[in-house]
Design brief:
The complex is a heterodimer of chains A (about 260) and B (about 260).
Chain A: E1 5-13, E2 16-24, E3 33-37, E4 45-50, E5 62-69, E6 72-76, H1 78-84, E7 91-99, E8 108-116, H2 121-133, E9 135-143, E10 146-155, E11 158-164, H3 185-197, H4 210-223, H5 244-255
Parallel strand pairs in A: 1-7
Antiparallel strand pairs in A: 1-2, 2-8, 5-6, 7-9, 8-11, 9-10, 10-11
Helix pairs in contact in A: 3-5
Chain B: E1 5-13, E2 16-24, E3 34-37, E4 44-50, E5 55-56, E6 62-69, E7 72-75, H1 78-84, E8 91-99, E9 108-116, H2 121-134, E10 136-144, E11 147-156, E12 159-165, H3 186-198, H4 211-226, E13 230-231, H5 246-260
Parallel strand pairs in B: 1-8
Antiparallel strand pairs in B: 1-2, 2-9, 4-5, 6-7, 8-10, 9-12, 10-11, 11-12
Helix pairs in contact in B: 4-5
The chains are: A alpha+beta (about 260), B alpha+beta (about 260).
């Protein structure tokens, strides 16, 4: 069963309004560590400290400054920032529709499930329209005093709202300065054959978080006073550029 | 743009191992503020603090602990963490190639790029070109810091993009989110399809600007004109972090605003 709704609003485009409820889609499970003082295992906390006097500064004595040039600041207070906050709204405003799956994954941030808020034909109609057309909406909305840009998509029987990163938060792949590489037809063919041989279907259930289990075992062992043996990380030897074709062909022999 | 590498190792498939570095694909796009002491504008830094001794604790005295009872901890070292999966902490081994569109985006967590290290350029270029032509992506597991990640390695604009994935037990079911279908919707759907087709476009991420950032930059610009900035006391040889370049930020956002008009 899905978790309860965390926000309510409506999808708006053209002359349509579809009331929706937002549900969390992901719940992370991790072993939680704390930072401790090595000698006595006292749990540490984060504290803002004056860089000159090295003394803790309580939050009521902290102010926020933008560093204009070294050591010179423009002070900005909470009230000024509050005034910048977007106005509350319940509208998820769709601006355009784009082909599904075309957005560079570096923009994708977080997905939520959207359920119908009140029973109306609008929800199912929108779901079917998006699935049939193979499109997703690009939309903006304000939720909990933050403005978002995101996607409105459909999968199975459920609409989804995804948040996107702003373009100034994303490193474009083009800025990585990757060199142009000349590859021979033989190298390419061997590579393509090999990748096809190693292809399968994605079955996420097959991948367990084994590390989490091993970590729990490690903690249990240490708690009962057992000695832990340290294994050094294994490194693989890199394939030399002039051995690439040879290695691809050897790999092919291995898998066929 | 020189990007700092956050991990080095190899990415491999079958017998081929490519030396690579992992770099961030996401930057803080926010206007960053510095916290200051109200009385004299001294910059503050975030430190780990021992509440018992009321002292700052330097990083070499900090250990990682797992709580097994009230104020009882088991200390776990970096070496012990790496020992858990020694074969996975320095190599990303692709175990399966799958169709790029096979992974439901609900699994996506954080994106990074892999870039080739010295002498890895050729094999890297080959993997990119082969995955592009076959429309495949790789599935791998690798250990980074305190966690083992399930990752998707796919091609984006000629680069290898590594996306960490959520494990399937972290994905909540969407059963019950939508109610059972209520009768015929075809008339409403047809009207919607008409509007949707009218609104079809290509996605241009630059079109959507961070309004909050634009407003903060404009507020800062106004304040900088009206009043002189405050000055932090100059003491000793402390070198504060580099100043935020307001002029550059302003120019950049103006350029973006113009570009979207």
């Amino acid at each position: 069963m899905a978790v309860r709704a965390i926000w309510k609003g409506y999808v708006h485009f053209g002359s349509f309004d579809v009331p929706v409820k937002l549900h969390t889609a992901v719940r992370e499970q991790r072993v939680q560590f704390h930072l401790l003082h090595g000698r006595d295992h006292v749990r540490l906390r984060q504290q803002m400290v004056c860089i000159h006097e090295k003394v803790p500064v309580p939050s009521e004595e902290q102010i926020r400054g933008f560093e204009l040039e070294e050591g010179k600041f423009i002070i900005v207070d909470d009230e000024e920032l509050d005034r910048i906050e977007p106005e509350d709204s319940r509208a998820i405003e769709v601006h355009e529709f784009v082909k599904t799956g075309q957005i560079d994954p570096v923009y994708l941030e977080r997905l939520y499930y959207l359920g119908p808020d009140v029973v109306s034909p609008g929800y199912d109609a929108l779901l079917e329209a998006l699935l049939e057309e193979g499109l997703e909406g690009i939309c903006t909305w304000t939720m909990r005093k933050r403005s978002y840009v995101g996607t409105l998509g459909a999968r199975g029987r459920v609409l989804r709202l995804g948040t996107l990163r702003y373009s100034d938060e994303v490193v474009p792949a083009g800025s990585l300065d990757l060199p142009d590489i000349e590859l021979s037809d033989r190298e390419l063919k061997a590579g393509i054959d090999l990748v096809n041989q190693l292809s399968g279907q994605f079955q996420p259930e097959n991948f367990e978080n084994e590390h989490q289990k091993k970590l729990q075992e490690l903690i249990d062992k240490k708690a009962s006073g057992e000695k832990i043996s340290i294994l050094r990380p294994k490194r693989r030897k890199a394939t030399a550029p002039d051995k690439l074709l040879e290695t691809l062909e050897a790999s092919l022999k291995k898998v066929v | 743009m020189a990007l700092q590498s956050i991990w080095t190792g190899t990415i491999s498939f079958s017998l081929v191992a490519i030396p690579v570095q992992l770099v961030k694909a996401v930057l803080p796009g926010r206007v960053s503020f510095r916290m200051l002491h109200a009385k004299d504008y001294s910059p503050l830094s975030r430190e780990m603090f021992c509440p018992d001794e009321e002292k700052i604790v330097p990083s070499d005295e900090i250990v990682r602990g797992f709580e097994i009872g009230p104020e009882k901890y088991i200390v776990v070292t970096d070496e012990e963490l790496e020992s858990l999966s020694p074969e996975r902490s320095r190599s990303i081994e692709i175990v399966d190639f799958i169709d790029s569109d096979d992974v439901d985006p609900v699994y996506y967590d954080r994106p990074y790029y892999l870039v080739p290290s010295k002498s890895g350029e050729k094999a890297y270029g080959l993997l990119v070109e082969v995955m592009r032509r076959t429309n495949k992506a790789g599935i791998a597991k690798f250990v980074f810091g305190e966690r083992e990640y399930l990752v998707l390695v796919r091609v984006t604009s000629g680069a290898l993009c590594l996306v960490t994935l959520h494990y399937s037990d972290e994905i909540l079911s969407d059963t019950g989110v939508a109610t059972e279908k209520e009768g015929a919707v075809s008339e409403e759907k047809d009207r919607m399809v008409k509007t949707i087709r009218d609104m079809k476009a290509a996605f241009k991420p630059e079109k959507y600007t961070n309004e909050r950032k634009r407003k903060i930059v404009s507020l800062l610009g106004k304040k900088a004109k009206k009043q002189a900035p405050v000055e932090a006391p100059v003491i000793g040889e402390e070198t504060p972090e580099g100043p935020g370049d307001l002029v550059a930020v302003l120019q950049e956002s103006m350029r973006k605003l113009k570009a979207t008009k």
